[in-house]
Amino acid sequence: MSRAKRAVVIGGGIGGLTAAAALHRGGLQVTVLERAGSLQPIGAAISLSPNALRALDVIGIGDEIRDLAAWQGDGGLRTPGGRWLSRSDADAAAERFGGPLVLLHRATLIDSLAALLPPDAVRTAVTASVADPGDADRPARVRTPDGELEADLVVAADGIHSAVRRVLFPRHPGPVYSGFTTWRVVIPVPGVRFASHESWGPGRIWGTHPLKDGRVYAYAAAVTPAEGHAPDDERAELLRRYGDWHDPIPAVLAAARPEDVLRHDVHHIAEPLPAYHRGRVALLGDAAHAMPPTLGQGGNQAVEDAIVLAHHHADLAAYTAARLPRTTAVARQAVKVARLNMMSNRAGIAVRNAAITALSKTGPALFLRSFDGIADWRPPQSPYASQRTRLGER
């Protein structure tokens, strides 16, 4: 009887767990090595567009995630004073892309993915590195504090500052600072009703969206030097930057505590990698193609990567060929959108806002147009789930 192929996944985030679940479903023996003490991510939400949901259909949890998440699309784009520049609705998004855009807490998605794996497949508090990427004639070797593991496939899902990427491509310059930092909160805001929105101001944006469990997910971004910190606390920094913006932003800030606010500088990979594999090691997600969050596609592209990798796990050159052109294009579009929505010149902002308003009157909202060619992607495998995407089925 032949031995089951072994895959080692370095990184237990969304991309790594999706890859592990897809490879396990395909018959591989999978081990996930996560350096943190648990799989639970630091609190924030994730937007999943139809491309990622169709990828999750392949491993059988697409409908589960649709049920757990809030549909997005009812709302639009506003100015700091509250004027609507562009409106959109969830049904229009679902009709345009063959399924909904949804929002849920990252921890919820992590739990659903982890439940697809055998109980002993995930090892936390383990620092792993690639000792040898292997080749066609020998397995890859992964070094851990408890010794080395041999693998027919190593999946490097170790994030934007990937140590595995540096081993595979030591001459690549790595990520660069995108020019802005982000803040995120997930909190209850009792008594506040609002339409989802993203609001663009000079060199700043803010977004507010309801989660299905009643909490509010809010995020902000601002052009600022790298590695900055508030002189007091990050909630106070948000009050200074956004406290006079339209409702419900003041109410969200009033409900937030300093410890609720997460702040992270944004980095992206400006120079594409020459490949997403070397030997028996494949990179996915931020390790391969980190991008600004301005399209909300970082996690979505990682999920796509994972499903395509499982499909091509025996031919990593085919995986690179399938993923590198697409993710490079999506990452470049995210950079362009960042330049547009983080614009600081007031004359340019006036022209931009007028153009957005005019375009939205003649066709689909900018929010929907930005997903053309992205959200309509379909996985190479047949799905296992029912793909409930009919309009109104929320």
UniProtKB/TrEMBL annotation:
Keywords: Monooxygenase, Oxidoreductase. InterPro entries: FAD-bd, FAD-dep_Monooxygenase_BioMet, FAD/NAD-bd_sf. Residues 7-312 form the FAD-binding domain. One of its GO terms (molecular function) is monooxygenase activity. Gene3D superfamilies: FAD/NAD(P)-binding domain. It comes from the Bacteria. PANTHER family: MONOOXYGENASE, PUTATIVE (AFU_ORTHOLOGUE AFUA_6G14510)-RELATED. This is FAD-dependent monooxygenase. The lineage of its organism: Bacteria, Bacillati, Actinomycetota, Actinomycetes, Kitasatosporales.
